[in-house]
Amino acid sequence: MFVINEPQKLQLLYESLEKSIPESFKVYGAIFNIINKNPFNLEVLVDAWPDYQIVITRPKKEEMTDDLDHYTNTYHIFTKAPDNLEEILACSQVINWEQAFQIQGCQEDLNETIRKVSASKSVQVDYTRTMLFSLGTPLEFKTLSNGKENLTQMFKLSKVDEASREENVSSVFLDTSHARLVNEPWKFGKNERSLKYVERCLQNFPAFGVLGPEGLPVSWVVMEQSCELRMGYTVPKYRQQGNMELIYHHVREYLIQKKIPFYFHVAGSKEIIVQKLISFGFKSHPCGWHQWKCNPKKYC
What we know:
Aminopeptidase; 4-stranded antiparallel β-sheet; globular; Glycine N-acyltransferase-like protein; Glycine_N-acyltransferase_N; glycine N-acyltransferase activity
């Protein structure tokens, strides 16, 4: 594996990965942000060029200074050749197995290999699989644009029933002042390292929220380093009032206009949310969303 950092090659890789969406969503989104200012200081590794089979994004070495910070120490992986992945993942120059880290991807085929290599490295793995959703692929959007269709009309969400919502509720962009509010209920957060990660996301990426009558956000979603919308939450008192529907309306309008790719994951057990998303026009992808949280046994 070797790093590619030439702008032209990165752009070609980014465009090539469009053909492999949704399985390539994680590396595709990360490379989008690398091309656009690279706020998380990531780098891209490939096994060959231009006929690559494996792509990995990871933070540059100077970012990975905290051996316990698996939020910063995150690898995104896409492969066309799962059989070749074991040797690459086992290489210490590709992944630092001496520290806590995460691997994220949208391919279930990664699971067996990651577990096998982790066992050989005496690393404990906490695996999470959820449903992957998106409004469509970039190639679909391009086709619609070439046909001079209005994207926001093609993917029209159901109309929000304003009469059913609390008075004085308005939509907002969140900022770093909301970091603790976002971090506290986040299933994968609730600690000081995740708080720093949330702050960094809020500082660099779009975050959408709805203000309640008291002037505080009561519902929100936050984009992170691979263009995924995460940390979605609605305060219990304000659920079933159309707040998240309003957020997704603004998400669609803003991100499509800015040509920013986006997608998200939802636990399959949340049937009401899943059905609501499908009614909004979002698509569920069979490949799923996968995360492997890896901890060397010396840290367990």
